[in-house]
Every structure is written in structure tokens, then in C-alpha cells.
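User: These chains co-purify. Model them together.
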Amino acid sequence: MKKIFSRRTGNPFIRFILMMFLIFFALFQIYPLIWLVFFSFKSNEEIFGGNILGPPKIWKIENYRNALMGGDVLTYLLNSIWISMAVIFLSTILIAMAAYAISRMKWKLSGVVYWIFMAGLTIPIHATLLPLFILFKTMGVLNTPLSLIIPYTAFALPFGIMVLRNHYETIPREMEEAACIDGCSIYQTFFHIILPLVRPALATIAIFSFLSSWNELMFAMTFISDTKYKTLTVGLQSLTGMYYTEWGPVGAGMVVAALPVLIIYVLLSKQVQNAMLAGATKG
Amino acid sequence: MNRFMGNKKAIAVFILPSLFLFGGLLLVSIGFSVYYSTLEWSGIGEGTFIGAQNYFEMLQDVIFQKSVKNSMLLAVLTLLLQLPFALFLALILTSGIKGEGIFRTIYFIPVTLSTVVVGQLWMKIYNPNYGVLNSFLQSAGLESLTHNWLGDVDTALYCVIAANIWQYIGYHMLLLYAAIKSIPQDIYESAQIDGATGVKAAMRITIPLILPTLKTCAIFVITGCLKAFDLIYVLTNGGPVNATEVPSSMMFNSIFVINRYGYGSAMAIFIVAECVIIAFALQKMIRTRQVEY
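Assistant: Joint model of the two components:
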């Protein structure tokens, strides 16, 4: 049953070496983050030489208070949260409907439309930056949360439609036939019968939409200049070197930006990974 | 049934909002970008039509040439270092080693982080005075190797590449891991009877079977590097002395720092064309059969 470096045939010494390698690499992936947490609790004296590598000698919890209260990090955090929630909500609905029309319903142009969305997976969004900037400026949307919610939602569509189309196609046609015979409308069929069947895929899509809007920088820093609408990524970028002579609170801001994502990942990592495994398995 | 699933009104209700939003934003924007790229325009008042002049200027611009070269180097080195390493990790993790799930979860953590956080973090790691890297070298007695990593034109780009690999290796590892996991066990069982186990099975069975996924990974790495912006913007913003300049950082600075909307748009179109052409060429070049089990 074993695969490559098989346990049955592999020799214990090689297995030991491989294990050491995996552990070493895990440390390489995780130590910088642990170091960041240490950093975020340190005073300037410890950061600038006293104690660079290890845990802080004195844990300065007030770094977090200073970052959250003094440096607008709380505002950035709340903006990031509600903007990404809006994006998740809008994009999931749009994706669910569009992918359904493309993969299950019968119309001539469905192939062309699918192709248009899939082109969006390859085309970099760079070329939309200036035109959207000018468009939003003329519409008066610039410097409001809408200027981020609109593009984030739009650019979440291709990935979601691709994932969901694959899931819809595994549903037997008889589902809709039965619903049709029972007198359901197409809308009832979609919302009450089909959607519940793809709930795990919807979760995957929501997670991806969340990550991409939470982490986006280029649009956020171009379209928002008002502190009260800034998201965490831009906020952090402007924190560095602006107000602070203290470095600890900057580290605290970074931890605050990373934490929601990490919590969601730790809680749902199985779900995300299983969804990816399911998508990669054929038949 | 056909009338039920071919309900024109329902189709319109389902597809039009997305199509309008996405098509409108992406396709129309790119159209506008093409138009802007033919203008000499500072964003104020009307631009002057100058045809393809921005493109000629761009292609002759020494710094732009350097930025293209940098992004190619970024793509090639990331591909050569990240993909074999990710494959190696995926092969070990699928071999039935203890702690498979934990390692997989840990390796994927940096992928979920914002590039701003990753960039800021690595900036602190590379910091010559209080960074982890130099302190680590010092405590290991390798003081001669300590360095102003991001401030030196010779090392800055490699520092960006290292941070980029650190962040995304887990992503490719997971894609490959999933592909290997989806290979049916009985293939290995019959291979074992034929005497193919261990490394031999990996080379002869696993790698050929996951070739389509490897191709996908390669395309992601290359197009991802060609359009890379966030990490470079945060770590170096193209410096020192343009050592890490890439087309997207030049595009951004041309538009929003020196207000040359037309010139920056020409770069945006260049990035789009470059990514699309290379992705398409890679698709054609590496022919893989879709494997059916």
C-alpha cells in the first residue's frame, strides 16, 4: 500500500533523514512568524540589538494597545473585515448563479461566456488599474469602500466559476428533471435543490475570495487615501516609518493583520485542503 | 425539460450581473488602457495622441529593459528552485511518513498571509542592523557573511526571490500533493510486483502521472512572477538603483509618481501581452495528455 519512499522497503536511516529534513523545513517556514510574534512584544532596546533572535525578556503587551488605539490599526482591521465580508457575500452569489447558467443551462453562447471568464484567470489585472482609477474618480466612487468592493468582487469571479462549474457537473441531470416534473420553477430548483448540494464548494470559494481581498495591496493603495477607509494592507504599509519611533507596535500591527487569516486557516484547513483534494481527483 | 433548462429569462438573470461586472471591468478597462497607451497625458486635461510612441520609448528605455530582465530572472530562478523542492516535499509527504497532515498544514501557512505582511517581515529579517539573518550569521561565527542584503544591488533581487519562494512553496507543494494523492493505489501495487518501488516508482510512475499538475504549477509560477508587484513594492520598491525594478513597479511609478499616464499604460499592456503570450506558449509547448484513471 505504500507509495514512494516506502515504509516497508525504505531503510530506517533514510526515513530518519527525511524526517529531519521535514522538521527543518517546517522550522524554516514557521520561525519567521514566531520571531514576528516575539518582535511585536519587544521594546526598542531589545529589537535594536539587545535581544534579536529570542523571545522578549519583558513582554510589552502595551505594544498592541498602542497599535490598535494609537495608530488606527483598529480602523484598518474593521475596514478589512467588512469589505472582505461584502466581497464574499456578493461574489459567492454571483459565482453560484453564473456557474449554474454556464454549466447546467442550455444556451448557445455558454461556451463563449465561460471562455471570457477563464481569460480572466490569465490576464493580469494591472491593465485595469488606471482605467478604474479614472472611472471611479469620475463616478465619485474613488476613496470610498465601493472602489474596492466592486473590483474585488469582479476579480473573484473567474476562479470561483471554474471551481463551481466542476462541482455542478458532478450533479446528475435527474435532479433538475425531478424538480421540473414536481412543478418547481427554475429559481426554486436552483436555490433549494442545487445550491445545498454544492455547499462545500461554496465554502472553498468564499475562503479564496476572502484571502484575495484581505491580502490585496495594489488597488487598495491606489483607490483609498482616506485613513478612515484604509484596509490593513495599506495601513500597515503607511504605518512603517510614519508615526512610530517604536518598532514593537508596527510588529503588533503585522500580527493583527495576519491573525484573522491564520485563525480561519487553522479552523478550516481541513476543509480547504479537502476541497482542493476533491477538485484534483478525477472520476 | 429543454424549455425548463433553456429558460432565457432565467439564464439572463443568472449570468448577466456577473458578465456585466466582469466583462465591463476587465475587457472595457483593457480597451481603455490600450487607448491611454497611445496618449501623452499627465491625467490633467486632454491627452495628446502620439500613436505607438510610448511603446517605442518603453522598448528603448534601459531601465525598462532591466526590469523585464529582472522579472524573467525572478521567474526562472523561482521555477528552478521552488518547483523541484515542492515536488520533493510532496513526494516525501505522500510516502506515508508520520505527521503528514501537520507538515502539510505548516508548509501552507505562509501562502495564506498577505504579501504586505510577508514583505514587511522579510524586510526586518534582512535588516543589516537588527535583522534575523545577520544576527544568525553572527552567532554562527560567520561574521564575514553579514551583509546589507536589500541595500546591495548584487543581492537585493535574490533576497526578493528567496522571500517569494518562502511564501509560495507550500502552495505548489499542496497542488502536487493532491495530484499524487489522486493516483490510484493499485498502480503502485502492480508496479511493486514488477519491482518498481521507492525512488524508481517516483521517477517512472508518479512524476509522469502528475505532469499536467506540474505544468499548471509552472504556468502559475511564471505568470505570477512576471506580474509580481506587492512583494517588490513592499521590500525594495524597485531599488537600490533599479536593481529589483520589474515592469509592474515601473508601471505603477510611471502612472502615480511621475504622472505619465500614457507611458504607464503602455507598460500595463506590455505586462498583459507578456503574461497571455507566455501562458499560451507554455500550454502549447508542454503537451500533456489528460490522465484518466
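The first helix of chain B runs from residue 2 to 5.
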